[in-house]
TrEMBL record, chains A, B, C, D:
Residues 43-121 form the Polymerase/histidinol phosphatase N-terminal domain. One of its GO terms (molecular function) is 5'-3' DNA exonuclease activity. The lineage of its organism: Bacteria, Pseudomonadati, Bacteroidota, Flavobacteriia, Flavobacteriales. This is Polymerase/histidinol phosphatase N-terminal domain-containing protein. Keywords: Signal. SUPFAM superfamilies: PHP domain-like. Residues 1-19 form the signal peptide. It comes from Maribacter stanieri. It holds the Pfam family DUF5001.
């Protein structure tokens, strides 16, 4: 009917105006620099919508991701846990992905096809991402689900292994089930950060078994309510990919090139976390104060994380505490007492909020040329 | 299966913890005082969810309302416009209401059963609230839908009559359709505020035809994104009811006892807007400055709206501009030059942001006793 | 002594570094546009330091003025009231001016030479600015002080005539003393705003006797404490001068070309206040919404005052309240229902917080060309 | 003259109203808990006014101190360096103290009588506080000034020994002059924090020579401009005194019972810094999460400093980073994975921003009883 169509058209128009406004207002974009040889992709690969036990339509997830300045998301609906099944009796478990793809079409956001394989312990919860079809992954036996995921070329990671609902001590239990999956090449990553939880025991497992280090929001409600309005950022996985593409992202995840980030906490293998931190600070100025041997530096943090450092240089500071923060986007003045005027100075900083292993914080070095 | 059940239980637990936290964090509660003889109920009776063309599950609407400190909401899904029908092929048009009722059970929020009757102009969009069953209201002919709504005892109001999609000049067109409904007792109210739009021409119609004055959010996305983060509050209808109950609310709406509120704009009939404003300010202190005839007042705005006034008292101010704002919750010092010391002083203030008719702002009076 | 000199040098260096930093950090600069034919100079011509009953050294006054982005200040020390005389037994009443001049030398701030002639009522307090030498203005008889000020070519204005310490009713008393001064050409202006006090009775006197309208801070302590940290701006006089020079400023003051400003309150003669307001708003965009007769405007307030308006155009608004604020620096979207598409539209706005006479607010007009 | 007196009276009234308002508005009060056996007095013993090279009258210093919630200040005017001497040719070097005492009379603030003995290196700058008369301390030879200070019972500390104007490498030079003073009992303390400068080399000297550790603002301009508006707090010395009195404060300083504080940096001897930190946190709740071994703690920081910690407990955290901040006044939720349910748990935290010696951060312990 002509009238109905016109009516529909107007409604669509008015919503897309809305969507554009959101794009511009992003008040909380996440930012991290690329590292030598790789693009740093900001990803959240653990998300739910009304198509499993979440509470929003997939388009809201796309808009949230755009506000957070993400490069990629995956809507990983539980295949087995479907509390809205009465109202959304979907015969096709790919609907969430399909709707998100349509919404993302006009935006610069990659949608990774994914699903959550959900069991009680010991199998626990696991995300399969870069899948081709969610339907055949729904299997009676967990083992069969993992096998199918592997068949589709999926990257599979273990979700919140330290979740106290499945592990009452709050520590991950690496059971025979995981060992078997690992052996069969069916398990590739592990969440060390899930929502607000960081488990250094999970980090230990990642390092021991060479699993890719993951951080995800596992959002069910609204990012605004669970993170933003509490002053937090959503947890993400930085993926160091050769290009900004789905395929490169997948390759990087299999290769273990990640850093998990939640607010000011960064967790990753030394070989990725150190270059990330070294690119995160830019020494914008370096010159001696008149008639002194005090070297004045201006150092900018170009990330969206506040970064915390302890001075480990050969030289002490003139008017800073040796423990100091450079807030996201801030340029900090640092003054080094070099005792004589130098041409080259090595600034060594321990990144107190970053971990390459349990209780292990990296030290980064900047070689500074004085003009 | 036992394990599955345990798993379900944990998920439910963890979400309800979340919900409680939300309840406490409400950063933007709407507040308005009762008026003599009536409770002031804060209501939003025009809301959508995934069950028509909205983008969230009904529980999110309940949580948003709790954050806004509302007394009542109605999820008024379009009966005829169902863009998510493929995924949500509901045979029962009351589902949205049923789910919201379950969610609201533990909270102090009233859910009004409602539906939207949606046509092109001249019928346009109309909300029927306090219905008993949404299903029979879905009719081919608009006239039949209104008749059925009346049969169920519904209070029916005309939505955004000035919406430019249906009225390109941006002014409401009160057609034969509306005249007929009015005559048959099938139309009782009119939105003068819909989302961010206020039409004083709609207010003129409300006064001319004695329609109840309504304000609603018409929310489809998130209250946070469309209102809160832009510094706005959601539009509401204050309903002056004999008691805090569904039935009293319904009686009050039929009786036309409302004020529509959006941020600092209040629109209502003089007989309700003036007492509302008079209750909104409290004179907390009144005494003369030593050795002077300058009367020092402390006046508190107990509403969540910033209120704008112009002094129309017999006396001028000592150290205030005659045009001044008292912010939500603020206590303002006002000093009146009464020329001699008085026992009783009449403070007369024109409420510049409030309207009882187009271009007609009310003046309120406070009789102040000096201690 | 060499050592002492070196020591002095370092102290000077370190203070000047400080001063530069202040210049950059100005967090509260006052801004107002020029009007056709005139520069709008931001001035505060009523200020005290330790050289009368103030509490800071003159250099602090210069720095405060730079932070407020003023064009000119005058340090108007009381000649007769000298509570710090024991410690500062100055033989030369020009010291405050001399020190401020030295401090201002490197900055783009004009220092107007001034003094306060201080008596009880009926003479009251009066500022003489653009004087040449403060010493001879100190006289036993008030009449002689005014005569000397006139001899020096001073512009003289009556301070806070409504001050309740001298006028217990809080209203100005225009006595024979003032009449005599006026007749002799020894009184040229009147404060309608002094610190936080606005007296519309003083405005009435200004208009009746053709006195220049003045607004001043009368600061004794710190601008930060008395104004800024309470969310206020310092009161100023906008002087509309042919050039940005002391001489032009003086000519403009004698000619009565001023507007007094305190926060959002602006008080001035119609012939200056209306052009000031008309330059204060810039219509940045004007175009019709697709397929409608709704004209979308983007209007920027380029001043540092929040401005409050009421729509008095022929047309009503689509999605704004007819009473609205445009905050300092803000660009506001306004949508006019012009009923048909027009090439030229007249936007008429009443400036609710501005006064050209007691209870008299000006209406400004913008002729808008639609692209 | 009667009129003049009345006039004076009004001015005094109006200023005292002002003063009261300031007292209430203090937006930045410093707070630190007492430690076992001692009151923690918040002191700033290095301050200037117009009576040496500062830029405000002494009353402003009193008001600043009240806003900062200090217990004691000393106005330590340079005896030898008097740039305002032309205008303030004081014959009595105690004037600054006398005026401050008068101002402080109605307030709960202690004024310590002090002076600065000012020389080039090697003597450098030194403050003598708890003096009786400043005049005889003004001596040609530095040695004589120290001798006189000792005679008066003064506590003397070395100011900013690392100041690059006197020590171009930015490191303190402990010369024969200091050694001699120390031997004669004429030097008792050393600034490790002066204005924004912290020198760990000065801390090393304090520990080596058993000098009292001091932190001071050395303010010349305004506390607001140099500290507050840059987001900093003024540096202070916490003095651990048996009572809240001048005499106890003096005894404590001679006994070396201090911690220097600047924002989040605290520097002191282990025996005082550890109890201060242990009193700074209060464990408000401790209980196990249902059906888990996760111990939920709520820990409140009752100081005005943000405190930074690293977990060094036997147990890891459930949903916190092991490096975390508890902001001033904040209550932080911390969850410990104790692996089994315990009655007593030891929480061990390294205070990352606090120093008991160069590069030496203290670890504090809380024995927590679980209900």
């Amino acid at each position: 009917m002509k009238t109905r169509l016109a009516f529909l058209y107007f409604l669509l128009i008015s919503f897309s105006i809305l969507a554009q406004e959101h794009k511009h207002s992003s008040a909380r974009p996440l930012n991290f620099p690329d590292i030598p040889g790789y693009k740093s992709l900001k990803t959240d690969l653990h998300i739910h919508t009304v198509f499993s036990d979440g509470y929003v339509w997939p388009n809201i997830r796309v808009m949230e991701a755009l506000r957070d300045n993400l490069d990629a998301i995956s809507l990983t609906e539980h295949l087995e846990y479907q509390p809205h099944l009465t109202d959304i009796p979907h015969p096709d478990r790919n609907r969430s992905y399909t709707i998100a793809m349509a919404e993302a079409k006009e935006h610069d956001l990659m949608i990774v096809h994914g699903s959550e394989i959900t069991r009680s312990e010991p199998a626990g919860h696991n995300n399969a991402v870069f899948i081709k079809d969610a339907n055949p992954i729904l299997q009676d036996k967990a083992e069969d689900a993992f096998m199918e995921a592997k068949k589709q070329g999926a990257f599979v990671f273990w979700n919140h292994p330290a979740w106290y609902n499945q592990s009452p001590k709050g520590n991950p239990i690496f059971s025979d089930f995981q060992k078997e999956r690992l052996k069969k090449g069916e398990l590739h990553g592990i969440e060390v950060i899930n929502s607000v939880d960081y488990a250094q025991e999970s980090l230990a497992l990642a390092l021991e078994h060479n699993l890719t280090i993951m951080g995800t929001s596992d959002i069910h409600g609204l990012i605004d309510w669970d993170y933003t309005e509490k002053g937090n950022q959503r947890p993400i996985t930085l993926v160091f990919a050769k290009e900004r593409s789905i395929e490169s992202m997948q390759e990087a995840l299999f290769a273990g090139r990640t850093v998990a980030v939640y607010n000011d906490l960064m967790v990753g293998k030394e070989e990725f976390l150190i270059p990330l931190l070294e690119q995160s600070l830019i020494v914008e100025k370096a010159s001696y104060a008149n008639n002194t041997h005090v070297l004045l530096l201006e150092v900018k943090n170009i990330t969206s994380s506040d970064l915390l450092f302890e001075n480990e240089s050969e030289y002490t500071f003139y008017d800073n505490s040796p423990v100091f923060e450079i807030k996201a986007g801030e340029t900090k003045k640092i003054s080094l007492k070099t005792l004589e005027n130098k041409r080259e100075v090595l600034l060594k900083l321990k990144a107190l909020g970053c971990f390459t292993a349990p209780k292990q914080q990296p030290t980064i070095s900047y070689s500074i040329t004085v003009k």
